[in-house]
Input
Amino acid sequence: MAMKALDIYKLLPKTNCKRCGYPTCLAFAMKLAAGKAEVEACPDLDPGTKALLGGATRPPVRLVGVGVGERSVAAGEEFVLFRHEKAFSHPPGIMVQVSDTWPEERVRSIVETVRETVVHRVGMDLVLTGVAVRNESRSPGRFAEAVALAGGGSTLPLVLIAGDLAAHEAALAVAGHYRPLVHAATEENREDLARLAKRYGCPLAVRAASPAGLAALTAECAAAGVVDLMLDPAPRSLQDYIAMATGIRKAAIGRTEPALGYPIYFDTTPFRETDAALAAGILKYAGVIVVPPLPPATVAAGLTLRQNIYTDPQKPIQVTPGLYPVNEPGRDAPVLLTVNFSLTYFTLLGYLEASRIPCYLLIVDTEGLSVLTAVAGGKLTETLVADSLRNFGVGETVDHRLLVIPGYAAPLSGKIEDATGWKVMVGPRDAAELAGYLEKEWRA
Output
């Protein structure tokens, strides 16, 4: 099991020499326990203690990179089994499959769709990751041509799926410099494929139908010099995948089987329930997920789910506080107060833009809490509102002194008036009702 900070501290020299870069040995121990420091930073540890602490404090799931550039996948480096314990760190790469038997135009079209698909949500651009090219023609030349059609890995990360060594050699001659994921080493071809992956410096997926088989393959491939590995548990059903992925993650997090401390590869294409399979991969620990070409609604749902699961639950997504113009407001436009919780802001913004009502949004810093939570927790106060009005120059932007506050902030209306000198109007609780409220109630 991972060591706690105090257990680590007991093994440190306790000299507080600061040569590790931290002010005290206890601070260094806390960073080690969180996986945010390397044990080698302490110059006074003997080799035995370094080996002990290194094995107990390094991430139990190795970080493995696939591809290069902006869309490269960083899979692994996870410390927990459940998101609420700490947060999941690296969202899985979603790779859309093409076949080397498909017509050239179809391959180009799918690659272009992967490249251009963007889902805008709460201020973030959500995108697909890359392309998985499957060798179904059994021709090394056709496989290499399909890999080239997919960009050769220069713009989108690739997964190369083939059962033939010659096919992989041909594809890697095209794409090997861009770190594609090579799939997959098995009991039969492990030596040859490990040698090929090592030559190109590419990550390698190993495939076996049992944790013991996967552990044996990773140990052999690591011994052959391939350090970046992924685990394909070859599931027969979604139930089988969930059970195996959970077992692998438990073994890695508990450090009971270090040979399983690698990210998981999940190919959803054999399953009918593609949307359910994609969700299972996102929810249950996949580092790379291969999917068939999907309808836009499924893509949007999958990208949204991935964003939700890989958002730190202890750190709400926030927008920058400030005064935001909406629909080209003038000096007589209403000023609407709200919080900097992203979902609140973008929901409200969507309704206001659709209404075409010119207005200003005054976003105050509640540390990412919603209106109701911020009021209850004392984060939304009359002092904060007064400071925000002054700091963002609201009085110099409009000619009136009327402030519309959310319905859930109604208990603060009198205090805000006293602290700011502005007249407060209490708006609706539901953002969908705001346009109607303004049309009826607003008079500058």
About this structure: The two ends are 64 Å apart (CA to CA). Residues 5-57 form a domain with the 3-methyladenine DNA Glycosylase II; Chain A, domain 3 fold (CATH 1.10.15.40).
